[in-house]
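Q: How would the structure tokens look for this protein?
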Amino acid sequence: MKKPKTILCIAAILVFAAAAFLGFWLYRHEKAQNEDLRELQSRQSAALAAAEELSARLTRLEIKSDYAEASYIYFPLGNSITVHAPNEVWWNEVGMAASDADHDYVHLVAAYLFASRGKTACHPYYFYAWETAEDRSSKLSLLDPFLDPGLDLVTIQLGENAEDLSTFEQDFEELIRYVQAKSPGARMLVIDDFWPNGERSRMKQSAAEKTGAEFISLKDIQGSVGMEAGTGAVVYDAAGNPHTVENADVAAHPGDIGMQAIADRIIEALQADEANR
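A: Here is the predicted structure in token form.
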């Protein structure tokens, strides 16, 4: 009677040992796979970082080359009203809701400058990251590729996406002073909010006054539906293909009429300065 029990015990030990060995093998195999996966991910991250750095360097070189060849340098800094990359609801890398590249306020101002000042370099920058950051000062260095002692004009069209206004005025003042330190010869124009927000407009105007920048009021067009593109507006991508605006957020952006109104106020400020010379 003891022999079957002994056989069963041996069999159980063998099964347990086999299971333990298999478990250990699977553990070692999975660990090796995870290490390989982590190494692969690390290599991919390093390659991506290197590609991004190379792209950034090429962008800086392109910008500096354009600056060197221009007789006038204009840096438009803003949010989607200034420039926005294509996505699922927007189709051209221009100011959102403008019908094409000739009708956003940046290109309208640049065309005026080209006609009145000669060859103009213009590289708009989308700075939404600053508007929505918890620590806005941490984003200022992103502007460095665009800032240069030779800048002639800087327009700052920012604020519409900023919900936390607890330090907004101080942050806006810091932003202006950062640009001024890097580009001390540039004329600085701070553009009012397109959509009405009295408190934010007051803060922007105050920051402009404290730093010697000029404030461009949009009070007379704020909240005007006629200045917005509206749903159903037809816009064109870079290849000239038509698209219909259906997204409500895009539709609320300035259409061609609104973009022209913003450009007109910037140009009026420039012309007033020329008249006083």
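The chain has a mean pLDDT of 90.

DSSP finds seven helices and eight strands in the chain.

Upvote if useful.
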